[in-house]
Design a protein that fits this description.
about 280 residues, alpha+beta, Thiol Ester Dehydrase, Chain A, about 35% strand, globular
Length: about 280
Amino acid sequence: MTDAYDTWIGRRESRTERIHASVVQAMAATVGVAEVPQGAPLPPGWQWLFFNPVVARGGLGADGHPRRGGFLPPIELPRRMWAGSRLQYRADLPVGAEATRHSRILDVKHKTGRQGELWFVTVEHTTEAGGVACIVEEQDVVYREAAPAGLAPAPVQVYDGRAQWGRVIEPDTVLLFRYSALTFNGHRIHYDQDYVRHEEGYPDLVVHGPLTATLLQQLALEQGGGRPLARFDFRGVGPLFVSRPFRIEGRAGEEGTLSLWARGPDGELAVSAVAAFR
C-alpha cells in the first residue's frame, strides 16, 4: 500500500494570477487591519487568498472540495484537511503584481493512527513575481478515515505555554463566511452545520486552519519591531469552532525567533508555530 500513489510524486502544476488590490482590501476588512495600498508588500499568509482551484459545482465532492484526482492523488478517505506548512518569505510580493505559483508533489506517505488509516501528501509551492521567488512553502495535506460513530471526544489537555502577549479572537459565522468566500473554499465544515455534525463528527462549524495561521503571522509582525518575516512554520493540533472565542499568543523564542500558538477556549492547544525575521 505504501507505494500506491508513488506515481503522483513529482507531479507539477502552475497557476498565474494577479494579486488584486480589491481582494487584499476585502481581506483587510475581514481581519480588521488597515488597508494595504497598491504596490505594498502582501502581508504574510495572504498569498493563500490566491491560486486556489476554480471548479464547477459538478466537479465537487460531497465535502465541497474538488473531487479526488487531478493534481493531488485520488485518495478516497472521506476527511481531508490542511495539517500545517513550513514557509520561507524570501522577497516581497507586491499588491497588484502578476504572480505565478509553481506546485510540485514532494511526497505521499501512508500511516496508521489511533483513529485508523492516514495519508499525508506534502506539496511544495513556489510563488514568484518578476522572475523572483518570493515565497516557498511546504504544505502538508492529511486524509483521514471518518470518525467512528459514538466515539467519545478525547479529554481536554490544558496547554501550559506561558504567553508574553496575545489577544482574543471571536470567530463568528461572518468571519468564516468571508474567509471561505475570499479563498473560494467550498469545504462544508466551515458553513454547513448539519454536514459538519452528522458527517464529520464535529460539534459545530470549524475555523479555517490557514485563517488561524494568518492571524498568528499578523501577531508575529506586531511583535517584530517592523521586520518582515523570513520564516513561519505552523502545525494544526486540534480544531477551533465558531462562536467559541480562542486566544492567539506567543513569547520570545531562541535565537531571535518567536514561539506562537492558538489556545482554545478550554485551554487546549489548537495550533503551534514558530516565526523568524529577516
